[in-house]
Amino acid sequence: MHEQQLQHILKHVPAGIATLLGPELKFGFVNEAMQALLGGVSADSPLALVEQTHVLTPDLVQVMQQVYSTGVPYVAKSHGLQLPASATEQATTRYFDIALEPLKDDHAGVQGLLIFATEVTEQAAAQQRAHELARETRRLDARLRVLTETAPQIIFTVDAAGAYEYVSPQWYYFTGQPTTADLNIVWLLLVHPDDRLRVMYQADAARKAGVGWSYEYRLRRHDGQYRWVLSRALPELHAPDKPVFWHGAVTEVHDQRELADVLRRGEAELRFLADSIPQLIWTADANGFTDYYNQHTAEYTGLSSADLGPTAWVALLEPSEQAGAARRWVQCVATGQDYEGLYRMRRHDGQYRWHIIRARQLSDERGPRWFGTCTDVDDQHQLREVLQAQYDELARTNRDLDTFVYTASHDLKQPLHNLRGLFEELRRTATFQDEEAALMLGMLDEALGQLEVTLQELAATVQEQRQLAAPAELLDLHHVTEEVLLGLRAQVLDTNADIHLDFDTAPTLLYGRANLRSVLHNLISNALKFTSPERTPVIRLSSGLSESGVPFLRVEDNGLGMSAKQSEDGTFQVFDRQHPHIAGAGVGLYLLQRIVHSRGGHIEVKSSPGKCTQFAVYWFE
Question: For 87, how many CA atoms within 13 A lie in the half-sphere containing its CB?
Fold first, then answer.
């Protein structure tokens, strides 16, 4: 009766139970759970264990045979069995704890095995997940340690009481402390005494409030120098519990802090300098709105920075100029071009004074900003107007004088022609008994010729004066010189002069064409006029560049030479004649220097009387 009840109980136990009998390990008792596991095997089945290997793995069968032969029990933990597919489920691998217990007879001989299989699939899956999580945790922990130990920062963890749980190796490198040092004691001792109380208070307050912190303090380095560091930490939150750990980093900011101090001092000094300059100085943001005025601006306008506002400088201008100035400012802000203009700005007494307003844009890591000045030039402007009026009056007077000289010289030519005609008629018809009549007639003829030459030179001087402002163009020296020589062909043939041209060093010149022709004509004609009767005239014209790169023209001859009578300022005087026995008015060199000086150049003369003369014309200073 009891045996039937026991079999009934074992048959319905959720764990798989079976007995294997004999060396062939044939199934004896098989409960329902084991039948389901092995695919319908029962005690009536003639199959042996070895024939159930489609469910039982070969290694498990070998272990069963070993237990039967040795009589030593064994438990296989979390052993996987491949269960075949059914009508409702796919083939799956499930895990079991399989206990193998030998069945012994009365004489302690092994007659079979008792198999007890308990499914632990969920526990095995949980263990697998736990193993994978642990492996991932170890991997992440190793990565985190690499990051914390290679970052250029001191990484730390403290608990709610402020005790250090972890600190990265950088702390030991920075402070020079041994790894055996007690962090909770040594750390505060390394904080600068002036910062220690503040650091303790801020850290304690943050932990009590359950929030993070961020503050700067000075920490002593391994060389004994205190360096500014930034300490930042955040709590580890696990709602709804209070935080029990704070994780943070200490970053050295000493150089940045010193740079910020230098910038603050520099800004203060620049503001002091700007406030000390008697000029209106202001700055504006990227949109063109003024955000700073110096002290002189307030004194000049009688308005404070708040009264002036971001655009008030436009309202200070003369009403008729405000619209144009504002449009120009908006355009410069949009394009980044420099701003400059001459406007009338109202002073605190209501007087409008001329100002030059300039502004330039500076772009850096903070973005574009504008820096501007308003310079009072009213006195200079009025003086310039006075000077301009005087200049205009002098120019008008000069033009009138030139016109008068030109007209007078032109009008005097006719009486001169009349006198010469009468003199010729008198010479032809009249007779003189005076022994010196021929000499007197020659002297009179020479005087008339000299007067005619003087009138021509005066007219030429006025004409050249009017051409001083001729526009500059790139001229070929050789070509222009050939044109001048063509006009002097008669004098060249008459003197049988030998003329050499060498313009290879500086073949071209940016100059006024009429001015260059006048200079060449004057120098060449003088060389032809003042030749020596003792030798064949040789005239050399050459161009070159001075040591400073200034172009020059050199004209050399072997004529009569001269004593260069220049004034103390190095200029030739009008009507100064070197050789009175040769016809001339003494205005050639004066006219020459007027042309060269008007273009910003100068003339140098070297001469040996009776031997040679050399003129060097430096076109520009």
Answer: 0
Does residue 332 surpass a pLDDT of 60?
yes
Q: State the CATH architecture for 470-618.
A: 2-Layer Sandwich (3.30)
At 423, which amino acid appears? F
In this prediction, residue 215 carries a pLDDT of 92
* Chain-centre distance for alpha carbon 462: 56
pLDDT band at residue 585 using 50, 70 and 90 as cut-offs = very low
456: left (phi over 0), alpha (psi -120 to 50) or beta: alpha
Can you tell me whether residue 221 is helix, strand or coil? Answer: coil
At residue 229, what is the residue type?
Answer: V
- Return the pLDDT at 180: 87
What is the CATH number that goes with domain 1-119? Answer: 3.30.450.20
Please, what sign has the CA dihedral across residues 104, 105, 109, 113?
Answer: negative
Domain 290-469 in the same topology as domain 151-257: yes
* CATH 3.40.50.10740 is right for the domain spanning 290-469: no
Task: Return the SS3 of 574.
Answer: coil
Query: Residue 554: which of 578, 525, 520, 593 has the closest Cα?
Result: 520
pLDDT of residue 43: 53
Q: Which residue has the higher pLDDT, 265 or 112?
A: 112
Name the one residue in this structure whose structure tokens are 């005076």. Answer: 434
pLDDT one-digit tens code per residue, 421-467: 666 666 666 566 666 666 656 666 666 665 566 556 555 555 555 55
Average pLDDT for residues 111-130, to the nearest whole number? 87
Mean pLDDT of the chain: 79
Q: Are 576 and 565 in contact (CB under 8 A)?
A: yes
Which residue has 């039967």 as its token pair?
A: 68
In angstroms, how far is the first alpha carbon of the chain from the final one? 140
Two tokens, residue 536: 């064949």
496, 537 Cβ separation under 8 angstroms: yes
Q: Which of 291, 280, 368 is nearest to 332 (CA)?
A: 368
Q: What is the pTM of this model?
A: 0.37
Burial 243-256 (b: 16+ CB within 10 A, else e): bebbbbbbbbebee
More confident residue, 397 or 586: 397
Per-residue CA distances from 73 to 16, 33, 104, 114, 283 (Å): 17, 22, 12, 10, 95
Give me the architecture of the 151-257 domain, per CATH. Answer: 2-Layer Sandwich (3.30)
Domain ranges of the chain: 1-119, 151-257, 290-469, 470-618
Radius of gyration of the chain (CA): 58
Lowest mean pLDDT among 123-127, 358-362, 496-500, 562-566: 562-566
Residue 531 burial (CB count, 10 A): 22
- Residue 203 pLDDT exceeds 80: yes
- Could you tell me which residues are beta bridge partners of residue 20? 27, 113
Residue 290's region, left for phi above 0, alpha for psi from -120 to 50, else beta, is beta
- Pairing type for strands 339-346 and 352-364 reads antiparallel
